[in-house]
């Protein structure tokens, strides 16, 4: 039986130079996450949740990054945006 904690969540992100760095940063904070590369698309998947931390992304990009910029990278997602503020985005299931 799959629970909300282990039920996979996912984010599909358009491939670009900045978005590759974004995915690398997200992977640093989510060691259980897998990334599949397709033409023009990166598919992120993890059991239960994916955390996106502004500070990690800024370190990887070498510039300031606002979480609102994430909307420009997303193609689609599976799960819910359980949290979205100035410092962190969390994709997880509410149930």
TrEMBL record:
It comes from the Bacteria. GO terms for molecular function: monooxygenase activity. Gene3D superfamilies: Monooxygenase component MmoB/DmpM. It holds the Pfam family MmoB_DmpM. Belongs to the TmoD/XamoD family. This is Putative phenol hydroxylase component. It comes from Gordonia amarae NBRC 15530. The lineage of its organism: Bacteria, Bacillati, Actinomycetota, Actinomycetes, Mycobacteriales.
């Amino acid at each position: 039986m799959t629970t909300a904690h282990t039920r996979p969540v996912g984010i599909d992100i358009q491939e670009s130079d900045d978005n590759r760095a974004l995915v690398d940063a997200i992977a640093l904070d989510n060691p259980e996450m897998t990334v599949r590369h397709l033409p023009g698309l990166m598919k992120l998947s993890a059991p239960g949740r994916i955390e996106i931390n502004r500070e990690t992304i800024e370190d990887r990009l070498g510039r300031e990054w606002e979480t609102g910029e994430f909307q420009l990278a997303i193609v689609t997602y599976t799960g819910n945006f359980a949290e979205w503020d100035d410092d962190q985005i969390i994709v997880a299931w509410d149930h």
